[in-house]
Amino acid sequence: MTVFLKSLVIAGLLLLTGCSSQWTFPPMAVPLQPTLQQEVHLARIDQLLARDDLSDDARAQLHYERGLLHDSLGMRDLARLDFNQSLSLKPDQPDVFNILGVYFTQTGHYDAAYEAFDSTLELDNTHTYAERNRGIALYYGGRYRLAYQDLLTHYQDDVDDPYRVIWLYLVERDWKGDDAAKTHLAERIENSDQLDWGWQLARMFLGKVSERELLEQLATQASDNQVLAERLCEAYFYLAKHYQHLGNQDKAVALYKLAMSGNVYAFVEHRYALLELNRIAYHQSQQNDE
Asked: Which SS3 state, helix, strand or coil, does residue 17 take?
C-alpha cells in the first residue's frame, strides 16, 4: 500500500472513538475501477463474437468469458444475458449454472438457485463452490439443516479456510443458537493452521478481536489498494452480520453499504450485502404495515 493510501486509512481509524467503535469517517479504500486489461479483453471478445465462422462451443465460451468480465465490472444484467446465451449454445456447463445460481440467490429466487446448483453438481459432482453456494442459498432460504450439511462438507474439504468456518458458524448460529455455534467455531479455529488473515474475522465473532483491532490490523497489513478494498469488503460485511444479530439494524445497514463501497464485485461479501439490505428493508416495511 502506498504511504498516501495507508495514511488515509489510519486517519479514518483514528476517528474511531470509545468502546462502541463509532466513527466520524469510516476507513475506506479507493473504489476499484475497470483496468485497461479488462477493457481491452472486453473489446476483443466483442470483435470475436461479431464473426460468423465460430462454432457453437467457441461462441458459448466467449459469451461465458464476457459474462465473467461484465460480472467483475458490476454489470450483472449484461452478465446474466451472456450466461444465458452461453447455456443456450452449450447446455452442459457446470460453471455457468453455478454463477446463475449465485445470481438467483442475490435476487431472492431461492428455488431457482437450488435448481441451478443441483444442475452444476449433476454435471460435476466435485464442484466445491457450487456446494458452498448452494449452502449459502439454503441459509438465506431459511433451510438451515440442509445448508449446514452442504457447508459442513465444504468445510471438511479444507479446514484451514476461515471463510468456510465463518459461513458454517452463521448457519449454526441461526439454527442451533449462539452457545453451540460459538463452541464449534472456537474448536474449528483451534484445529486450523490460523495463517489466513480471515481468521481474525472468525475471532471477531467470539469477541477475541474488537472492531477497532480488526480494522487497525487490516490497515497495517494490506499491501496495496486492491488488497485493502477486498479486506474492507469482507470486514464490513461480517461486522454487519455481527451487529445485525445483536439487533443493531442501523449499524448493520451502514456496514453493508460500506462493504459494497469498494466495488469488489466478485466477492461473496459484496454480492450478498445488497441481498441483506433488501431483506432488512423488507422486514422493516412489514413491521411498518402492522
From this structure: strand
